[in-house]
Design brief:
The structure is a single chain. With about 270 residues, the chain is mostly helical. It is about 60% helix and about 0% strand. The chain has ten helices and no strands. Helix 2 packs parallel to helix 4. The longest helix has 28 residues. The two termini are about 40 Å apart.
Length: about 270
């Protein structure tokens, strides 16, 4: 009501200043103010809003896209387009690097539409939210641990999904990250002359992760400590890479999946 009164007063003032003859018919439609003929706010069709949202999404304007998708949810909550809008809101949050928000939105989609054909993609993206939270091995490894759990859930639920090979590769990379984190802690103990703690950590690595890429270096450091000859200088050369271990996309066939998630939104 307030907005309608404001628009009416603004039109009246404009008419009084400009003269009725010069502006005759200028305000015959409330479209000038984004309102309908009856003064109510216009509601755009769901299809148009989704199209505008997808156009913004494809060029990386994720905040703008979110506004369109949210409008679909608010104005057309029971339309077929609302289902796609729910998923794309999560995608927008993910590509905006808001991984915790994105994970919650993906989980909400899963809870509301557990039998939807896009569920393998949704589960994969939940894993990617965890994986993307992983930073450096000298920091918290919770993201890598959560990623392993999330990707493993995808593999158990949809073992033959288009995302299986990449999920397995991400699990391997996350495990390497966790091992490197453990090894980094062992080197820290050596640096601070806490040799017993370092030996315990190295033994755990060698026993639990015999095939990890860092294990040969862990064995070498373990041998030095067992001989009573811990390295005292140049410890930096004993450190692993601080970032998430890389993996070759071409080796596991990434990029060969043609299915886009929006093509799978059919309950």
């Amino acid at each position: 009501m307030t907005r309608t009164v404001f628009c009416f007063l603004l039109a009246t003032i404009y008419l009084s200043l400009s003269g009725c003859a010069a502006t005759e018919g200028m305000f015959s439609s409330w479209d000038f103010f984004g309102l309908g003929e009856d003064g109510e706010e216009k509601i755009e069709p769901a299809g148009k809003l989704v199209t505008q949202g997808m156009e913004a999404f494809k060029i990386g304007r994720y905040n703008t896209a979110m506004e369109y998708f949210q409008e679909v949810k608010d104005q057309h909550p029971f339309s077929p387009e609302a289902l796609l809008a729910e998923l794309k809101l999560a995608d927008c949050a993910f590509y905006n690097d808001n991984y915790e928000e994105a994970k919650e939105l993906y989980k909400e989609f899963e809870e509301r539409h557990p039998t939807n054909e896009a569920m393998p993609y949704v589960m994969f993206q939940i894993g990617m939210c965890d994986y993307s939270r992983t930073d450096r091995i000298d920091r918290d490894s919770t993201g890598a641990q959560d990623a392993i759990k999330s990707f493993s859930r995808l593999l158990r639920t949809y073992p033959d999904s288009p995302y299986t090979r990449e999920a397995k590769a991400r699990i391997r990379a996350a495990r390497e990250f966790i091992v490197n984190h453990e090894y980094y802690v062992a080197v820290f103990y050596v640096r601070t002359k806490k040799y017993d703690q370092a030996k315990h950590r190295l033994k755990y690595i060698v026993t639990m992760y015999p095939n990890a890429s860092i294990t040969p270096k862990a064995k070498a450091l373990q041998k030095r400590l067992a001989a009573g000859d811990p390295p005292k200088w140049g410890l930096d050369k004993w450190l692993p890479e601080l970032s998430m271990p890389d993996w070759n996309l071409s080796d596991i066939g990434i990029g060969t999946v043609d299915d886009e998630p929006e093509q799978l939104i059919n309950e």
